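quick one, 255 residues, struct below
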Amino acid sequence: MSSNTQKNHNHVAELADPLQVLSDFYRQIVLIKRSLELHRLEQEVSLFLQVDRLPSDQEMAEVISARLQHWIDKKRAAAAKVLTEKEYSRIEETLYIAAALADELFILEIEWPGKKYWHSVLLEESVFHSCYAGENFFKGVIRLLNERAVDTQQRNLMAVYFLTLRLGFSGRYRDQPKNLETIRNKLFKRINNGVDDKESLVCPQAYEHLFSSMQEYRLAPLTRWKKMMVNGFLLYLLLGWVVWNSFTGVWDISL
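---
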């Protein structure tokens, strides 16, 4: 197999992998969060707008939403060119989940200037012309859990749902933590052939080493996300990669 052929094969494989797509998308959120914490997000937005002033809070929301929309649109277009109908359907579902996660994070979890304006630039509504993620998300979970047999990519799609819950999505169950825990545990057992989510921690010391190594202060105040990672080995594998790669540069406003 030639080098170009191998690259094309890898590219298609990445486009078809729900976990990879969620990971790539979440990296954008991490970069935005880091820029916010380093007090340079306003400057990056001003640069994007090509203005010689600080952006308004509404402009902050509009620009960040537009960039994430553009990222999703590019991913959809690339996937549509090379994936089968079944593969594309899974990636479309993954991108919908990613949009729902971002909407909740930017409205409810992240303290930032554009927070109060995000309702007017929701990714779910702008990209997917829908406003029912709080319900649709859990319909997707139920559908997958009811499947008798699942292939690798279906299992990866289950992992996308599980990780999205771990990253803070609650939907209609925001005030029902026990229900969320039950759903997460059902997903985790199905993904991992019956192993309970709470039994998945292999070596606690390894997690502490991860956070000390990557200088956790640079992610403050994301301590709640740290606790989530410690509770899930699968999440550790994904976010360990995401966070390490996130610190190679600033938010890419050229996306």
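Residues 8 and 49 are 35 Å apart (CA to CA).
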